[in-house]
Amino acid sequence: MPVPKKILTFLDKNLVKYTILDHKLVYTAFDLSQTLKVSPQQISKTIVIKTDKEYILAVLSAAHYINLAKLTKILKIKRLAIVNEKTVSKIFKIKPGTITPFGKLYKIKVYLDKTLLKSKNIITQSGSLKNSINFKPKDFLKITNGEMCDFSSKKR
Fold first, then answer.
1. Left if phi > 0, otherwise alpha if psi is -120 to 50, otherwise beta: which for 145?
2. pLDDT tens per residue across span 9-21
3. CATH number for the domain that contains residue 95
4. For residues 155 and 58, what is the distance between their CA atoms, to the nearest angstrom?
5. Where does the pLDDT of residue 97 fall: very low under 50, low under 70, confident under 90, or very high at 90 and above?
6. 124 and 34 Cβ atoms separated by less than 8 Å
7. Does any domain span residue 128?
8. DSSP structural state of residue 118
């Protein structure tokens, strides 16, 4: 399954530099880190969150956990929940495990954890389980148009 044309068109229209990385089939950010032999710090993971009012994308480094209490405070809401893959697939009409951090494609807000900026490159989902996209942090910030926050906790 190659990178969907919709994703490539979106990237090209937004004039960002990127590289497509081919790899074996992977389902998790950690597996991608192991497959590409790069630090989990360089891999972004995108989590769909249901808030009181809407869905959002929370994007953070694979080297960290999402801290839901911090995110709840940042968003100034009462509660939120992580959406399971089956529901994500149904809502966004994608295959499980292929959500990208490009909120504009889904018409939802993106929140980026500040830990992503600690890497020279950010590797993220491409809409394919056999390809990923490599960005410089400035290009990643531009294409996701996300709000920078601090909502993660370091993995032990």
1. left
2. 999 999 999 999 9
3. 3.90.960.10
4. 17
5. confident
6. no
7. yes
8. G
What is the number of structural domains in the chain? 1
Q: Are the CB atoms for 61 and 115 separated by under 8 Å?
A: yes
Q: What is the pLDDT of residues 47-67, one digit of tens each?
A: 999 999 899 999 999 999 999
Length of the chain: 156
* Alpha carbon distance 72, 77 (integer Å): 6
- Tell me which amino acid residue 152 is: S
Instruction: Name residue 28's amino acid.
Output: T
Cα–Cα distance, 144 to 125 (Å, whole number): 12
Specify which residues 81 forms β-bridges with.
Answer: 50
Three-state secondary-structure class, residue 89? helix
Residue 123, number of CB atoms within 10 A of its CB: 23
Task: Show the domain range for 77.
Answer: 5-151
Output phi, psi for 133, to 5 deg: -125, 135
Is 28 inside a domain boundary? yes
pLDDT at 113 over 70: yes
156 within a domain of the structure (yes/no): no
> pLDDT-derived band of residue 156, with 50, 70 and 90 as boundaries?
low
Structure tokens at 69: 């209490």
Instruction: Express as a percent the part of the chain with pLDDT over 70.
Output: 99
